Amino acid sequence: MNAPAKLSELMPQTVAFTLDGRAVEAFEGETIFKAAERHGVEIPHLCYTDGLRPDGNCRACVVEIDGERTLAPSCCRSVTAGMKVQAASERARKSQKMVVEMLLSDMPEQGYKWIGDDASRPHGELSEWAARLDVAVRPELKALRREQPSADVSHPAMAVNLDACIQCNRCVRACREEQVNDVIGYAMRGEHSKIVFDLDDPMGESTCVACGECVQACPTGALMPKSHVGSQQVDRKVDSVCPFCGVGCLLTYNVKDEKIVSVDGRDGPANHGRLCVKGRFGFDYAHHPQRLTKPLIRKPGFPKDFDQAPRPGDWSEAFREASWEEALALTAGKLKDLRDTHGKKSLAGFGSAKGSNEEAYLFQKLVRTGFGSNNVDHCTRLCHASSVAALLEGVGSGAVSNPVNDVEHAELIFIIGSNPTANHPVAATWMKNAAKRGAKIVLADPRRTDISRHAWRTLQFKADTDVAMLNALIHAVIDEGLVDEAFIRDRASNFEALRENVKGYSPEAMAPICGVPAETLREVARAFASAKGAMVLWGMGVSQHVHGTDNARCLIALVTVTGQIGKPGSGLHPLRGQNNVQGASDAGLIPMMFPNYQRVDNAGAHAWFENFWGVPLDEKPGYTVVEIMHKALAPDDDPHKVRGMYIMGENPAMSDPDLNHARHALASLEHLVVQDIFMTETAWLADVVLPASAWPEKTGTVSNTDRMVQLGQRALNPPGDAKPDLWIIQQIAQRMGLDWRYEGEESGVAAVYEEMRQAMHAAISGISWERLQRESSVTYPCLDADDPGQPIVFIDNFPTADGRVKLVPADIIPAAERPDADYPFVLITGRQLEHWHTGSMTRRASVLDAIEPMATASMCQGDLQSLGLEAGDVITIRSRRGEVAIHVRRDDGTPAGAVFVPFAYYEAAANLMTNAALDPFGKIPEFKYCAVQIRRGGAPVAAAGYGSGATGDNARLPWTVST
Questions:
Q1: For residues 12, 18, 22 and 24, what is the CA-based torsion angle, rounded to 10 degrees?
Q2: Residues 6+ apart with CB under 8 A from 417
Q3: What is the pTM (predicted TM-score) of this model?
């Protein structure tokens, strides 16, 4: 199909009609309601809201149309040419007012949700329209008020008050059609009809995942966040970005009495108003009593016992309070002393993917220009480093080719190594929406997760056999003549080597290895190759292996041989885990790359940055996260022994593999400075702890998984003497001899962004600070002020040396550690819906902790029976590196011979057991596979002291999970 050649071809056609006696125009297919709204005519409405499908059931929006006997609902009636509409005729207005009065007559005297403090309008939008239409309920109607159902407050996050329900069905559409969670329904008949959860269960006992979409949709307060029951008047509303996963949902904080009381989804390009449980209800961590509010210095003689559980609420035995001047002088003075005494390689820094782009940029600049080496890294090393390595090698860019919601244009969606409903819930809604409209989802994962309910085919392959399965798909495409020959001829290189390599990987040969039937593999290969658009989305189940780079190479090859890249609804999308892991990597917070992925050992890039920053720079790549830990335990005669570290917002004492080794390394440092908002497990081992700012307390940009640079505004001030991270970095830099001067509001964030924009001019030169303030979100590449940004890339060529995809064959490389007689099970780690990363934020969010208060391991029923276990029992899981005692859940989506453990819980830290073996290319650890043994019994460790830590009979947990 040819692209439009003229502006007129891009514009929708218009039709002329008459509205309240005035000649106006509507877009072709536009409803009367939306056309009237555009022309400044407000029509009463209750069941309609932007973002949801028009339903037309409340009839508050009826209008009169010339020549028609009955009134028409304007929300679901399209304009036709010549139509004459009266929105406020006597007949229309009488009907509108009657609807509002009848609905209002059933309302309880005391409302739950209102605009402002006017008690005469206690029922949100309904009372608002009653006031605007001058409607008062007649006593005769009040006398007929229905029997009021009792409130349901069984859910930790939301209150259900169905006495305020007008049965508009907005919550049903929000739950079933937008989020596709299928929890809320409309049941019974006549006067007994009502909104129900599952099979008329209490909300807290239903399968609700607490996305809160129903709360946002409800017009009357029948569904409300418990944190904001009562007056909806707030002191201010502040637009920002969600601080959790990489989807980058735009949101608005509602602030009252200097606290965030609720969160609304904003119409951003990644979420269009949608949020998940973390984004909507995980905000009160910022107000937790364990927030750090003063600089702390370790008391002389108090040991760094890395086996000791941290006491985040009782740190005074180990630390004393200090002034900022003393803490900063000690921080910089000791770092300078170590650098000058032992050399520039003796220092290292871990930055954060939870902060802003500006913080990431300044942090890596400090390490490179102040510490003097490239020993700087962050959690991308534990996330998608292998994916980025393969993408840079193959397509010349480490970012995604298409945004997540481009699945709307896909016929086939291939999800591998990812549990999007838990890890990227809003992104998962776009996939579920696509499936409802007819797209085929293929889930490829050792675990059968929730998204499999929407899948056309589920490839539950044996853990660690990704390359075997993917090569089998590529083989089938080539073997059955499904290769896009034109794409290979014009846009790919090294195809013959790939063809030769996969000859031995037929589906028939690989089926016994990967556990997926050969015919199923061929069926999926045919569907992928023949689809109008096929999109691949993957997570850490692909990347966190010693063969993670090879896994990604195979995915690149699969989309290349089928021509499924460089067009809508196709391409490659590694789903980013943390809110700014994409932006932090773009900004250069990695040891082998300057900003915008320019290698530090490239002579041209090296010279450019030396000139730009005005200081000599190290010309060799630095050490990565796991390598730095090894260097911290190196012998004293090693010239690269790491002796001092500055860690900002990272928690390697929980996130690194083989935690006993990592914690030992951290405790062995001569000087450890940790900058954070809580006394994390890492901060507990520090010499100096600097109290920093939480995400709602800062202004800055983040870049999401879709390559969107997005602006968040400060909603709160940091508590006590805590300071903005950007300010702290600059203070340390100045004390280390760097003449940094970033003037302006919010610690000079706009000036820092402008410098970063120059350093990354090849990607974001067209995204000015002023533009972000105006537009909130702009997609890169964006090279000038008039560039709208490029959501889909590689349309004409690839940013490689020859403009072609470089195909790299991959062979089977087994995991570094295989099950055996002593350790017969495989440990798989990952996230869960309610908790995120190491739990330092989410476990201090009251709603999230109430929903998932304790660590659990998941096993299938067959394995539980073979071990004589029942769901809820305690088991001890042991690897060659460590062990944990943990309660077990039944989850038949977990394959036989495997156990799944989330890594957010200190008291059952999965990474005590994981293997630090590295992918040779991405230098990422093998989190997703190691050998363990399981035995009945054990003593679970007490909770770390910041969540409720409910265990045993006190835990309100579903011990059986269905998929």
A1: 10
A2: 444, 445, 466, 538, 539, 540, 541, 542, 543, 551, 928
A3: 0.94
